[in-house]
Design goal:
Helices cover about 70% and strands about 0% of the residues. It has about 70 residues and is mainly α.
Length: about 70
């Protein structure tokens, strides 16, 4: 559980870093890259959160299709 909490924290920091980096550059290609990285890190965060919720019983269970995360990519 602690590893999941650490993973969530690190993903959140990555998201914040890439968002800030996208805002600080005028280079359109760099902004697109940073925004894509934000999307990827947000997906990672969501997956870790789903696993945490599953293990703690505080969220959905993976075998109940409340929504599909595999269709994101």
């Amino acid at each position: 559980m602690e590893a999941l909490r650490i993973g969530l924290e690190l993903e959140r920091k990555s998201i914040d870093h890439y968002k800030k980096s996208a805002q600080q550059t005028d280079d359109t290609a760099a902004q697109e890259m940073f925004n894509k990285l934000v999307d990827v890190e947000e997906f990672h965060y969501d997956m870790l959160q789903a696993q945490y919720d599953h293990l703690t019983g505080s969220g959905f269970w993976f075998d109940i299709a409340e929504f599909r995360m595999d269709a994101k990519y």
